[in-house]
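dumping this here so i dont lose it
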């Protein structure tokens, strides 16, 4: 492979991404995302970020990837399917978001992104590149949309036509010119099932969410000792707007064993959850995203 052949390198990157079990890989040219920046500023101004003050940090970096990676030219967006075959005991009313059934996705994605970045550097020579998994100031959904691997739905989540919205996003920002993909049209049409199903009216209108009213925010990000908020029996996250989405019907099951539900989570009953002590919490959720919430906040959500 020639190091300056954009077509060959682009195809090699996508082939390697597939080998690493990413279900989609799209590449877009670094630019200033004017519309996204405008909507984000409004989101912050209206206080819809609730107490997530960190979202107001590093705004210029969020708007301009070249401040994150000097002279960056490309954003490589990747999707990893996490939809599980088995779910929680149907007889329990206490629900955990499917993304937290297994191993912490940050660890899984970072390992794969690190491997893909090393592969690119091996093919092209040493490059200035960084990879990200939702902890950095990056418009990840907007970049994924721009790269053609999905669109931002009315529930504000990225939707892929084949894999729905039960996907994790990751990005590699790199100072390497590649062949770029084209965005696809938004395909929600007149459907409003996600908006209609939200029990707390967090989706105040299409493509507009108020985190103050969001069950996921309240059960995960809110650090108050008491909630005073009806979580509708969701104790970590919420999947309601995803569960009703037509694009999440009959989607492929994840091939990542790390994302499969732990047996204990699958089998726990209401009584088991209510009687959960801190020692059991640590054992069950060690290595998962739930572990970072902590025992006290987790039990507060019941």
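and the seq i came up w/
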């Amino acid at each position: 492979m020639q190091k300056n052949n954009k077509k060959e390198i682009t195809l090699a990157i996508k082939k390697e991404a597939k080998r690493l079990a990413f279900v989609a890989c799209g590449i877009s040219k670094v630019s200033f995302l004017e519309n996204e920046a405008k909507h984000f500023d409004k989101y912050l101004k209206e206080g819809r970020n609730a107490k997530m003050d960190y979202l107001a940090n590093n705004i210029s970096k969020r708007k301009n990837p070249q401040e994150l990676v000097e002279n960056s030219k490309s954003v490589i967006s990747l999707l990893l399917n996490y939809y599980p075959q088995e779910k929680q005991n149907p007889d329990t009313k206490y629900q955990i978001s499917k993304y937290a059934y297994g191993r912490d996705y940050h660890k899984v994605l970072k390992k794969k992104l690190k491997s893909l970045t090393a592969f690119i550097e091996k093919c092209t020579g040493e490059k200035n590149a960084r990879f990200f998994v939702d902890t950095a100031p990056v418009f990840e959904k907007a970049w994924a949309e721009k790269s053609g691997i999905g669109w931002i739905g009315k529930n504000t989540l990225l939707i892929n036509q084949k894999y729905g919205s039960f996907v994790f996003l990751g990005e590699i920002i790199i100072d390497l010119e590649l062949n770029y993909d084209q965005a696809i049209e938004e395909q929600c049409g007149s459907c409003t099932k996600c908006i209609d199903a939200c029990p707390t009216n967090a989706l105040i209108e299409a493509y507009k969410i108020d985190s103050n009213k969001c069950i996921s925010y309240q059960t995960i990000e809110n650090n108050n000792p008491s909630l005073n908020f009806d979580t509708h029996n969701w104790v970590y996250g919420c999947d309601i707007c995803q569960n009703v989405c037509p694009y999440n019907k009959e989607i492929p099951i994840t091939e990542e064993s790390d994302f499969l539900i732990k047996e204990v989570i699958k089998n726990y009953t209401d009584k088991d959850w209510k009687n959960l002590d801190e020692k059991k919490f640590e054992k069950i959720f060690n290595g998962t995203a739930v572990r970072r919430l902590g025992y006290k906040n987790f039990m507060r959500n019941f």
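The chain is about 30% helix and 15% strand.
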